[in-house]
Structures are given as structure tokens and as C-alpha cells.
Amino acid sequence: MKSSESWLQTASLEEIKRGYMEEGPAYICVCCGYRTESGIIYPEDGVLYEAARYMRVHIEKAHGSVFEYLLELDKSVTGLSDVQRGLLSQFYEGKKDTEVQKALGIGSASTIRNHRFVLKEKERQAKIFLALMELLKSKDTQAPAEWVSPVTRHEHTIHPNSFDITEQDREKVLNKYFPEGTGGRLTTFHMQQKHKYIVLIEIAKRFETERKYSEKQVNELLKEVHDDYVEIRRYLVDYGLLEREPDGSQYWLGSHADQQSAEVGKQERKAKGEQEKMDRRKELQEQAKEVKTEAGVYQIRNERNGKVYIDSTLNLKTINGQRFMLQMGSHLNRRLQAEWNEYGENAFVIEVLETLKQDDNPYYDSKDALAKCLNRWFEQLEPYGDQGYHGDKKQSAE
């Protein structure tokens, strides 16, 4: 039995336009190969149809229209760019140039008129090419008997995993293209691929899990999002957010959509956690301003192996910031951070070694005094190699 691709390949232009071929008593859909046979009555929604009429019913229910099915074929088959496919979809709905420009967000009304001219020119060229190929058939004995390139649905070249999407990206894009909220309408679908993917993930949330939809139901749902529902449906399928039967008779929410929803939730929780940490840091900074400052030298000691990290600060109240940086994995001393990650927070203590005494002498340099104090502790403890986290005696900290 021929595949649906073979029927489309061997059908004449008139048969493709009509949507089905006649082969003896059978009527065959050129889109999917579905067959009806003369003499059999086909019931549908309480109505009885003879074979030819029911084939037209099938095409409408399974494919929407032959035009929509053909428009979804891959670029290698149609030779159409994404922009041209979008334009044809709009023209098919009878849109005026100004309406098309608004829907697609490209150029101006004059730009749309120019696109119409280019498409008409493409049509004229196609007629000449078809005539040439028909004339060639009687002369070219080496030509293949059938069209061998597979007929496939349109697929976009950018893979979703190539997008690096942050929570900030998602929020910015959704606010831009859904000004009335994500439950409202989309302003345009003419945007860069990364933004399309973010928008499509949000649109996929409107579909119920474990529910099957007909193509008509999908279209009705997507019409509430944007007028260019055919293009949006195509992208949802291409990115695996929607899956469907090969003949387009049924659609359902794809597993990729569930994964992306989970990923979005994870990003939202992560962003919330980051915000809470930032708020806590700000709170600590405000508290520090209200406390009298004391300069001094402190150490971070690993109680498991005795190794220490030594440093000084003009405000000993800020040494808890060292713990915070270690918890965040952002401490400047890589050796200390590595063992903190290995042994865990409970293996370390932070201790004040010496508080710098205040001096009212107007020539007193607190920074210089603190540096000398730190050097004394380095000489005393020698926190290098197996005894500490500092590289060598020439440097007090990394």
C-alpha cells in the first residue's frame, strides 16, 4: 500500500487542489491516504454520506483544508520561506494588506503589496516550469519514474535546547507580547526564534493534559490567542509542545510541554530564592550601618583538619558575610571554598583573633595598624600548605 506521501507525489494538480484521487471505486485522500469506497454509506454526526461527499468531510475534519495541509509541508517541498507561508495563510483568510501587516508585524501595507507581486511572479514562473517538465517527459529517458524526495511537514531548524532562557527573559518577553496578561491575546507572532519559543511554551499551557483535540478544536483555541493560528499551531508541533496523529486528525499536549512547564516552575522558584537571598543581604547591610564598627583580624577554621584562613576587616561585624559568600559558593579563596563544599558548613567556625584597639591620636592610621596586625598573625600561625588555605608566605590571601 502506498504511503500518504506517495499519493501526494503521484496526484495531478487538479487532484491535489481537490484533495483526493479516484482509483476505481475508491476515493483516496492525497494528504494521508485515507480511503472511501463507492457503494458504502458513511455516517458522521447523525448524517449519512456517500463516498465522495464523505471524503470532503474527512479532509475538513482531519486537515482543515487542502490549503492548510499543503502550507504545512516542509520548505524543501514548497520552496516557501516562513514569511511567504505566513502571508499566504493571511491571504487565504481574505485579509486586507493593512490587516496582514498588523497581524504579521512586517513592513507596511506597501510591503505586503510587494509580497503579493512576488508571489504572483512565483506563480507565473511555476506555470512555465510545469510546462517545461511536461514537454521534457517524452524526451528525458533517464528521469526517475517518481518524485523521490520525501514529503514532510515543515520543521524549524533551531532546536529548543539551543535557547538559554532565564526567568528574566521569560518575564520580559511575556510582558511585551501579552500586554493584557498571558491569558489574553498575543500582539504579534513576528519575533525572533527565542522569543517565539518562550511565547509558545506559555500558549501550550492552555491545553489540558491527557486530552485529545481535533484540528478544528486546536484552531478554535488558538484563534483566541492570535489571528495567525495556523502558524502558531505549526510551531507548537515543530517544537514538540503539541503532538499529533500523522494525518492530523488528533492533537494532544506533548511531553516536551510538560518538561518545559516544570523547567519554568523551577526557574521561578530559583528566582524567588535568589531574591530572598538578596533581600537578606540588604537587611544585613542595613543592620551593619547601625552598629559601632571595630576593626580586627579573624580566622575561618576547619575543625576536621585544623586548616585556617586568615583575613582582616575594618568592621568585625561583617565577618558573617564570609559565611554568606561560602554558602553562595562565591568566596574568593578557592581552596577554602572547595573544602567548605566538601566538608560542609558544620565543619567550620569563624573566630575573631584580635580586635584592633582604638587610638585617638590624629596621626593614627587604622588601615596601616590593621595590616601590621594581620602580618603578625600570619607569622604566628603560618596558614600555608597543610596548615591553611593561603598559597605562600608572600601573599596573605587569594
Walk me through what this model shows.
The chain is elongated. It is 49% helix and 11% strand. It contains 16 helices and 10 strands. The strands form 4 sheets. A 3-stranded antiparallel beta sheet has the order 1-2-3. The chain has a 3-stranded antiparallel beta sheet with strand order 9-8-10. A two-stranded antiparallel sheet has the order 4-5. It has 398 residues and is mainly alpha-helical. The relative contact order is 0.07.
Short description:
By secondary structure, the protein is mainly alpha-helical.
Task: Describe the protein's topology.
Layout: H1 4-10, H2 13-18, E1 20-23, E2 26-29, E3 35-37, E4 42-44, E5 47-49, H3 51-63, H4 66-71, H5 75-78, H6 82-92, H7 97-104, H8 109-136, H9 167-177, H10 193-204, H11 215-223, H12 229-238, E6 242-244, E7 251-253, H13 255-289, E8 296-302, E9 308-313, H14 320-328, H15 334-343, E10 348-355, H16 366-381
Antiparallel strand pairs: 1-2, 2-3, 4-5, 6-7, 8-9, 8-10
Helix pairs in contact: 7-8, 9-10, 11-12
Mean pLDDT: 82
Specify the structural class. Answer: mainly alpha
Poorly predicted regions: 147-160
Radius of gyration: 35 Å
Specify the overall morphology. Answer: elongated
Number of strands: 10
Features:
single chain; 398 residues; mainly alpha; three-stranded antiparallel β-sheet; 16 helices; 49% helix; 11% strand; elongated
